[in-house]
Write a structure and sequence with these properties.
This protein is of the alpha+beta class. It is elongated and about 60 Å long.
């Protein structure tokens, strides 16, 4: 049986990937509300600014040569790294050592909702 030109196992894998992509954006309760018709999902396109790679890497190389790059990276109070526990998310390490899981949206770090914690 083919669903949208996919085998059943491939379609299930596809649906799981979709579900994983919205994890952190909506809670389980919100999903139940959608399923029961009490809420709706609105999809909006996000416009990411274009980055001039040559200018970026040129500036980084210049900062590296002057020693300013290592100072800028280590002087930041808040640091970010890929989350080892939640692939696709970032881990924000605050200056007090506390950590938050989330992602950037609209240029701001948004803490993920309901990651099963």
């Amino acid at each position: 049986a083919k669903i949208n030109s996919r085998s059943v196992p491939k379609h299930l894998e596809y649906m799981v990937n979709i579900a994983e992509s919205i994890t952190g954006h909506v809670t389980r309760e919100e999903l139940l509300d959608v399923q029961s018709g009490l809420r709706k999902i609105v999809v909006e396109k996000i416009e990411a600014p274009r980055v001039d790679k040559a200018a970026l890497f040129g500036a980084m190389e210049s900062m590296r040569n002057s020693g300013a790059l290592s100072q800028a990276v280590t002087a930041a109070e808040t640091k970010y790294q890929a989350s080892p526990s939640y692939p696709g998310y970032l881990e924000r390490i605050n200056d007090d050592g506390s950590r938050d899981i989330g992602m950037f949206k609209g240029g701001k770090f948004k803490i993920a909702k309901d990651l099963g914690r």
